[in-house]
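Ticket #4471: structure export looks truncated?
Reporter: QA, pipeline team
Priority: medium

Steps to reproduce: submit the single chain below to the structure queue and open the exported record.
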Amino acid sequence: MIEEGKPLFVQIAEQVEDSIVDGSIAEEAQAPSTNELAAFYRINPATAAKGVNMLVDKGVLYKRRGIGMFVATGARELLLTERRNGFALRYVQPLLVEARKIGLGPDDVANLIRAGAEPATP
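Actual output as written to the record:
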C-alpha cells in the first residue's frame, strides 16, 4: 500500500480521503488519530500528523479540542469535486488531444468508451 516515490504524508492523506469518498468514514465522524495512523502504517507520528494537517488545511478535517479530528460537513463533496476535476485534467484532456491527432471526434471517443464499458460477450 505504501508507494515508492510519493511522500508518506501525502499517501496517508490520500488513504483518509479514500475512506471519506467511499463512505467508510462519514462526515462528522471521528477520523483516525495521528497515533493510530502512525501505528497502522508503521511510520513516525510526525509524518502521519503532516498528512492529517494537510487535510485540515484543505477543510476536510477539523479538530475538536481534547477529543480528536473529525470529518467536516461537505468534505465528501469537496473531495469528489476535486477528484472529478483532476480526472478531467489527467485523463480526459490527454485522451481528447490524442484522439484529435489520430482523427477521432468526440462521438468516436464516446463510442469507444461505451464499447469498452460493455461486458464482453462469450
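Status: closed, not a bug. The export was complete when the record was re-opened. Leaving a note from the reviewer for reference: The first strand starts at residue 61 and ends at 64.
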